[in-house]
Design goal:
The complex is a heterodimer of chains A (about 110) and B (about 110). Chain A is about 0% helix and about 50% strand. Chain A is built from no helices and 11 strands. With about 110 residues, chain A is an all-beta fold. In chain A, the strands form 2 sheets. In chain A, strands 2, 4, 5, 6, 9, 10 and 11 form a 7-stranded mixed β-sheet that branches. A 4-stranded antiparallel β-sheet of chain A has the order 1-3-8-7, with no helix packed on it. Chain B is built from no helices and 12 strands. In chain B, the strands form 3 sheets. In chain B, strands 2, 5, 6, 10, 11 and 12 form a 6-stranded mixed β-sheet that branches. A 4-stranded antiparallel β-sheet of chain B has the order 3-9-8-7, with no helix packed on it. A two-stranded antiparallel ribbon of chain B has the order 1-4. Chains A and B meet through strand 4 and strand 5 of A and strand 6, strand 10 and strand 11 of B.
């Protein structure tokens, strides 16, 4: 079954404690992306990757890092989380920017 | 800067009534347009997309959208709404000229009353 998985689904953490949210896809997609969803703001793109070792900033990259060492995985790293990063995060993958994106189930992060 | 506007935060329609959700974009290039739907507690699912050609696009679940370049709009329509259509709908726009980013609107929450 074609799918994008994210872990964890829920996470409560404290300010400053480094965390990683994993994302994996089994469709051999080249394009992967991270979004955050906040009420009234829709989805905002954090980072995206066109292929292995190729990543670029989206509209809200501050406070986040990503890596793309393998085609299937695209982890999101928060080196020093802050309360304003409390949000719902989605990973997505597709064959390309202009193709249908497959979204993961989301990770709800709370930073206290 | 490129932007996407969904003017309606909430819309309520009766089951069986027609639906139109508005989307306006501000892009200086040829846009690629998408509509996604998010059911409660779920990820997003693509309803339809427009790249070029016929400006009326058919999608899944009986939805369609019309691209109007003169109005910079890509409104989503459905002739008869079902209770299961209650969800949040997002318009998204991309353009190769602006890199490989995809910009989403703020979303419209659709409520269906029986």
């Amino acid at each position: 079954e074609a799918q994008v998985t994210q872990n964890p689904r829920y996470l409560i953490t404290v300010t400053g404690k480094k965390l990683t949210v994993t994302c994996s896809q089994n469709m051999n997609h080249e394009y992967m992306s991270w979004y955050r969803q906040d009420p009234g703001l829709g989805l905002r793109q954090i980072y995206y990757s066109m292929n292995v070792e190729v990543t670029d900033k989206g509209d809200v990259p501050e406070g986040y890092k990503v890596s793309r060492k393998e085609k299937r995985n695209f982890p999101l790293i928060l080196e020093s989380p802050s309360p304003n990063q409390t949000s719902l995060y989605f990973c997505a993958s597709s064959r390309g920017l202009l193709e249908k994106q497959y979204f993961g189930p989301g990770t709800r992060l709370t930073v206290t | 800067a490129q932007s996407v506007t969904q003017p309606d935060i909430h819309i309520t329609v009766s089951e069986g009534a027609s639906l139109e959700l508005r989307c306006n974009y501000s892009y200086g290039a040829t846009p690629y347009l998408f509509w996604y739907v998010q059911s409660p507690g779920q990820g997003l699912q693509l309803l339809l997309k427009y790249f070029s050609g016929d400006t009326l696009v058919q999608g899944i679940k009986g939805f369609e959208a019309e691209f109007k370049r003169s109005q910079s709009s890509f409104n989503l329509r459905k002739p008869s709404v079902h209770w299961s259509d209650a969800a949040e709908y997002f318009c998204a726009v991309g353009a190769m000229e602006y890199g490989n980013k995809l910009v989403f609107g703020a979303g419209t929450i659709l409520r269906v009353k029986s």
